[in-house]
Write a structure and sequence with these properties.
The protein is α+β, with helices and mostly antiparallel strands. It has three helices and eight strands. The protein has a four-stranded mixed β-sheet with strand order 3-6-7-8. A two-stranded antiparallel ribbon has the order 1-2. The relative contact order is 0.14.
């Protein structure tokens, strides 16, 4: 289940755009926003403020892609970031027949590939970089909260004898 909500910016001067209208569409995005908001190496950041036109191969029409994040670091680097589950970053495995699920996953993969190719070109034209962050990337960067240690069972309650 995906979680969504409004993100409350702590460092309003770091956010480029409307700091009162930031929507996260997953807990991964929320954690990435919190990381950018509090990271001293991040000078400016935004969410869905950069719009990249892209050609969707399936319908041969130009669509608009709202990139998840734009981050500018103290060292001058600017990075466009897409946050996606790792499983959506590779072509789906063919199950032996064209099931509805396989067709939907294939179409999603084609659409994402078209978006990412356009975003990469858009970023390079501006001297920026485009990156896809998955749950694996977020974990390596220390952005995801650490999993709780194994919980101990509650002690058994002593029953009262009447």
């Amino acid at each position: 289940m995906a979680y969504s909500g409004k993100y409350r910016v702590k460092n309003r001067d770091k956010y480029q755009g409307d700091p009162d209208n930031i929507v996260f569409r997953s807990l991964w995005e929320k954690n990435a926003f919190r990381w950018a908001d509090s990271n001293p190496q991040v000078v400016k950041w935004s969410s869905e403020e950069v719009v990249v036109p892209y050609l969707f191969e399936a319908d041969k029409r130009v669509h608009r892609y709202f990139v998840d994040m734009k981050i500018r670091y103290k060292d001058g680097r600017t990075v466009l970031v897409e946050i996606k589950p790792h499983k959506e970053t590779s072509k789906p495995k063919y199950p032996g027949r064209r099931t509805k699920r396989y067709l939907e996953e294939s179409m999603t993969f084609v659409k994402n590939s078209n978006k990412w190719k356009a975003a990469d070109k858009y970023a390079k034209e501006r001297g920026w970089k485009f990156e896809i962050w998955t749950e694996k990337t977020l974990d390596k960067m220390g952005i995801l909260p650490k999993a709780n240690k194994k919980l101990k069972p509650l002690p058994k309650l002593k029953s009262k004898k009447s």
